Amino acid sequence: MIKLRGICRNFQVGDQIVTALNHVDLEIQHGEYISIMGPSGSGKSTLLNILGLLDRPTEGTYWLNKKDVSQLEERALAEQRQKNIGFIFQFFHLIPRLSARENVELPMLLAGKSANARRERSRDVLKSMGLDDRLNHRPDQLSGGERQRVAIGRAIVMEPAVLLADEPTGNLDSKSGDEVIQVIEQLNQEGISLIVVTHDPEIGKRADRHLTLHDGEVHHDTKKRL
Amino acid sequence: MQPGLIPCLRWPHAKMLIRDILRFTTQSVVSNRMRSSLTALSIGIGVTTVVLLTSIGEGVNQYIVEQFTQFGTTVLAVQPGKANTLGISAGVLNSVRPLSLQDAIALKRAPYVQYSVPVVSGIAPVENGGRQRTVNVIAVGPDFNLAFKFELATGSFLAEDELDRPRAVAVLGSTLRQELFSSEAPIGKRIRVGGERYRIVGVMKPKGEMLGIDLDDSVYIPAARGLELFNREGLHEIDVVYQDGAPTAEVIAGVTRIMMARHGGEDFTITSQQQMLDALGSIIGVLTFAVAALGGISLLVGGVGIFTIMTIAVRERTHEIGLLRAIGAPRYRITQLFLGEAMVLAGLGGAGGLLLAITIVVITTWIVPNFPAQIPLLYASLSEITAVTIGVAAGLMPARRAASLVPLEALRAG
Ligand SMILES: Nc1ncnc2c1ncn2[C@@H]1O[C@H](COP(=O)(O)OP(=O)(O)O)[C@@H](O)[C@H]1O
Ligand SMILES: [Mg+2]
């Protein structure tokens, strides 16, 4: 489903060039559960952002569903993100004035789905997150774990093929963190490809496949299948 | 994962619904109630100003048209002196022959002319025994009541009489009659006007005001007597009433010919009611426009307010912008949403301002029934449209800035 070849990402910092990713090759199948680990600054977030089409590689090719997406123009990229990618952030990024339900509906809203379809789908999604009694709560009325689950609901509401999580538990206590991990693992069970960036080895170990980055290179990959 | 679950096959890429765009923008405007109301207020005040000022302009315009047309529109006024281009009589400077009673008689022969009424007026004390009252003295020809369709309550109007030495008779306006005679019958009684004795021959029906002159608190006397009373050489004006439907230009030409022949030059000015209405209309139109433009400046100030608030909003909501982009909103959508917000702000402010203006006008005309204020639909809708346009213009730059943010950096900001 995902194929990276020779992916490099350089950042210009002043008159220096920082190499965040250095010739990364990677293949990911439908339904895989992968953890990405590595020391701080090793390029984990950069890799995830490129996978999530939030960033473009300086060099190399990225095929998503057999389509070369490394040279897409802005609008087509937005469309790909909308249809194929679900993203979870460390800091949730919920919109504070909207209810849990409205936050979850946001991608559907942007995609022009009818109010009826949205209402039904957001209820189902929040229910599966165990938040059926929090539909109309605003983010400031929710706990950290609940917020992250709302954010997960928003990430999967469009039924993307892949769910990308950058330190999803980094801002949570261990109990809420566990709940969040359970929720996304359940989603993986149901078929979504799951890629989690973490520096917590406990969480990292749970994945089927472990990817370790070092100085922008794939240091270790426990590829089981393929 | 089966291919059937891949969302792109089930949910083709579609555009965000207009209704949802409106709801989303309105929600974010409403969520910041205090700030939004203050910003909307700045636009609202502009709209209120424009609508109120133009309402008064429109009201004054209607009032004047009413005042001028209540005695018919087929009227020419002949006045002494040649009006220069500024419309100011230059009679004082040049040699001008005064308008005489004979001129008025002569003008009856002009084509299409029905009545020719000499007019002199002023203010003088009128007394009946012990009761005294200072009123308008309107000294006119005997056709006056017919020419302007004034009706008599009792008696008759001033009679056709010797031109230069008419009998000392007077006709009372209804208010004056009440003040001087209460319930007594006034016909045949004698009064003094400016010290001279007059015999009352008639009383007018109530007529109201014309341009601030209370026609009912007036006394009508023969024109020649008026000239004497006010010690004038000539008439104030001669009002010529012509047939309905007659070509105004030809009537003017006829009157001009007769006057030129009698005076040996053009030392008089003819103003037709129609010209006067047009001139006044265009003056008031220009004033109304100028006043609307002034109000428009306060709309601009409101625009600056919206620009500021939207710039702040973009900075505050950088995360939100990054998020929207991350979950699939293209650039133009961000522009649209923030522009929409500016529009909603301005639109709501404008609507509020409109409402306020209408309320003020309604309350004012309720308290002061004759207050000349009419809400002009044109300016009302124009100011609302201007408000929204200013909202768009003011929101454009901040919205563009929002759309130009790189999603990742926006998410990471702050
Ligand atoms: N926008 C950026 N500008 C400059 N340097 C960056 C930027 N993003 C990441 N980097 C650099 O790239 C490297 C990898 O960063 P990142 O992928 O965030 O690491 P990780 O997530 O593994 O901690 C780091 O050295 C970081 O300083
Ligand atoms: Mg990171």
Polypeptide structure, described:
The complex is a heterodimer of chains A (226) and B (414). With 226 residues, chain A is an alpha/beta fold. Chain A has one domain: 3-Layer(aba) Sandwich (Rossmann fold), CATH 3.40.50. Chain A is 35% helix and 28% strand. The radius of gyration of chain A is 17 Å and the shape is globular. The model of chain A has no long low-confidence stretch (mean pLDDT 93). Chain B has 414 residues and is an alpha+beta fold. Chain B folds into 2 domains: 3-66 and 279-413, no CATH class; 97-266, no CATH class. Helices cover 53% and strands 18% of the residues of chain B. Chain B contains 13 helices and 12 strands. Chain B has helices at residues 7-10, 18-31, 33-69, 101-107, 144-147, 174-181, 223-229, 248-263, 273-316, 318-326, 331-367, 377-404, 407-412; strands spanning 75-80, 113-128, 131-140, 152-155, 169-172, 190-193, 196-204, 209-210, 213-214, 218-222, 237-242, 268-272. Chain B has a 6-stranded mixed beta barrel with strand order 2-3-10-5-7-6. Chain B has a two-stranded antiparallel ribbon with strand order 8-9. In chain B, strand 8 (209-210) and strand 9 form a beta hairpin. Chain B is elongated, with a radius of gyration of 34 Å. Adenosine-5'-diphosphate is lined by residues 11, 13, 18, 20, 38, 40-46 of chain A.
